[in-house]
Amino acid sequence: MDQSLYTAHLKYLQVETDKLLQQSAFDGLLIGSGSLIRRFMDDNSYPFFANPYFVYWLPFLDQHPDCWLLIRAGEKPRLYFPMPDDFWHKTAQLPDQWWTEGLEIVPVKGRRELPEGELAVIAPELPEGECSGWSLNPESVVLALHQLRSVKTDWESECLRQANYLAVQGHIEAAAAFSQGCSEYEIHQRYLSAIAHNESQMPYSNIVGLNEHGAILHYQFQERCAPDQHRSLLVDAGAVWQGYAADITRTQAQPGTLFAQLVEQLDAAQQACVAQVRDGADFVALHEQMHLSLAGILRDAGIVRNSPDSQIELGITQAFYPHGLGHLLGIQVHDVGAWQHDSRQTRPPAEHPYLRFAGTLKQGMVVTIEPGLYFIESLLRPLRDQPQADINWALVEQLSPFGGIRIEDNIRVTSDGCENYTRDGFARIANI
Ligand code: GLY
Ligand code: MN
Ligand code: MN
Fold it and tell me: What is the distance in A from the centroid of ligand 3 to the CA of 62?
């Protein structure tokens, strides 16, 4: 790990936070790592996921509830680190690793003395002993932090790159398990073992769909029994590296089938789209271009006979590809800085309601590019009664048992184009 990248990241955050505070009514930020949340009527807790704003500063403490970080202009960030006597759990040692150099660390045993002052508290809730000057998640500060987080530092870029390099190892293992006739459950377990993650470390629940299950966009189960035939496999699964997520999808098909040809064609269209990713590119235009490419694929395969333009006009591509082209990626899989988190961002156009990012790409942003092609009966049904939709329904019936296709890579916008962390990750392994 290049330690200087993190050191520069921390410095950058301090400078940017100082600027943000100067423009606000606050003299500091108080960021909580979050707390364990008990299940209803139970003494067990849900798995812990640290507050992403805390991870932004201290990615090395993403398994540490009840920490507080105070950031004030001209001072070293101060970490309040809980050190309870607890014989039920393994308790954390006071951090003394290289990354603590830029911090002041206050061990907390028993009652915590948090500072007074006009503080913007960025946390799920206010800490005990709340002071009158504290304000929980003030909108202007939160929105400014979203903006900051939407453009990644070199440290963050390295974390996302490494998360990708790790996740591709899981995808390679999953493809091998598919060719060996494994069940969804076995494929899932082999994925986890290949990247040495347990389930609660994953950035989102693995999607592992054999055959028809590939058409369920967020398929949430894993069948324990292998099906009679392994026609296709869709795996949407990531990994985490120092708190940053990979979000990768690959689709496998039995060679020699029409479905395998469709996988190849969508893969080529996805790469052509990635080649358009650059500073200043309009994400909505890329999404619309992908609809046109998909219309071409559907026509060439004989699935739809309408021209590409009329397929789009009739909503045909929308039925085969109902989700957006991609989203911002970072500590959160659907990262902040896009419209759903920030009312100042461009709304998705009405005709693409599921497009999670509808703005202009900027150098340093990291996005997914994830087109799909699915056979989803509930979306195709209305087209059956649409006289202008010239669809080869016999071919649709033939392809539906294969489920669907999604190809998803993670891309950083650079000064002169982009870097594809995911394909680079596959290429590294192929070259070993
Ligand atoms: N894995 C969720 C998504 O691709 O957005
Ligand atoms: Mn995904
Ligand atoms: Mn995604």
Answer: 22
Q: Ligand 1 in contact with 12 (CB < 6 A)? A: no
Domain at 3-149: CATH architecture: 3-Layer(aba) Sandwich (3.40)
Alpha carbons 45 and 235: distance in angstroms, whole number: 29
Q: Against a cut of 0.85, is the pTM above it?
A: yes
**Atom from ligand 1 closest to the CA of residue 247:** 1
Per-domain boundaries in the chain: 3-149, 154-430
Tell me the C-alpha distance between 183 and 227, whole Å: 7
pLDDT number for residue 292: 98
pLDDT digits (tens, 9 = 90+) for 108-145: 998 778 888 999 999 999 998 778 899 999 999 999 99
Our answer on whether the CB atom of 335 is closer than 6 Å to any ligand 1 atom is no
Ligand 1 proximity of 409 Cβ (cutoff 6 Å): no
Distance 301 CA to ligand 2 centre (A): 26
Distance 432 CA to ligand 3 centre (A): 28
370 lines ligand 1 (CB under 6 A): yes
Quick check: 431 pLDDT over 90? Answer: no
Calpha distance 418→412 (Å, rounded): 5
Q: In whole angstroms, what is the distance from residue 177 CA to residue 3 CA?
A: 37
Q: Which residues pair with 239 in a beta bridge?
A: 246
CATH 3.90.230.10 applies to domain 154-430: yes
